[in-house]
Amino acid sequence: MIKFHILTLFPDLFSGFLKESILARAQKQGLIEIYVYNLRDWGIGKHNQVDDSPYGGGTGMVIMMEPIDVAIKEITKDWMPKKNRKILLTPQGKIYNQKKAEDLSKYENVLLICGRYEGFDERIRALVDEELSIGNYILNGGEVAAMAVVESVFRLLPGVLTKEEATRIETFHDGLLEYPQYTRPEDYYGKKVPPVLLSGNHAKIEKWRHEQAVKKTIEKRPDLLDGRD
Ligand SMILES: C[S@@+](CC[C@H](N)C(=O)[O-])C[C@H]1O[C@@H](n2cnc3c(N)ncnc32)[C@H](O)[C@@H]1O
């Protein structure tokens, strides 16, 4: 069981996300708990201020140290350090990947802090265990990044996917892209399904799929094969 804690200025963005599909099922089954916190609740003064203009000048607003510091302290007050992870979502972080999803799936509590505006007061970086980016592009806020992390982690937890879903071999399994998949019809205006898949010979199909996965990876993502024979 894993608990995600999401700190955001836009909690409503998560309402649809949390209520649908496998994520809704996993919550009902008690395999995952997700808590969404409004950073504004830790805002300062009667306007619950969370951001301010940058020292030294410049455009935009910067998220202040205090609301985040106090929020982290309150949210994590009962956490045992070793089994928990505090993560700042930022384009300056390490690029998130499947390996990181696997690592995170072993924690009991994961806090995901979503920024907005011009980002965080630099001193906030020292309050977390790590900084993660979901790619080399700029989003308006960390919420979509938090959803990507939640979705990629929780599906790895035992019992979340059905047996059939869980045994599927997917892209990045074994460091390869997934083999090509086809469904009906067998012949779509002359574009045919490879005959081996219709042969019923499971050994041959497995061999073909592995070869295709390697071929696809060489063609599309040779970087995944770095350091391999
Ligand atoms: C407009 S961005 C701020 C970018 C910041 N000025 C910078 O250059 O690092 C606002 C927030 O969106 C989130 N964000 C934007 N791009 C992201 C990415 N690639 N991965 C994770 N979070 C991202 C972060 O939480 C960030 O604080």
TrEMBL record:
SUPFAM superfamilies the UniProt entry points to: alpha/beta knot
Assembly and oligomerization: Homodimer.
Compartment(s): Cytoplasm
Signal peptide start and end residues: none
Gene: trmD
A Gene Ontology BP annotation from the UniProt entry: tRNA N1-guanine methylation
Occurrences of domain tRNA methyltransferase TRMD/TRM10-type (ranges): 2-225
InterPro entries named among the record's database cross-references: Alpha/beta_knot_MTases, tRNA_m1G_MeTrfase_C_sf, tRNA_m1G_MeTrfase_TrmD, tRNA_m1G_MTases_N, tRNA_MeTrfase_TRMD/TRM10
Matches recorded under Pfam families: tRNA_m1G_MT
Name of protein: tRNA (guanine-N(1)-)-methyltransferase
Molecular-function GO terms, alphabetical: tRNA (guanine(37)-N1)-methyltransferase activity
Organism of origin: candidate division CPR2 bacterium GW2011_GWC2_39_10
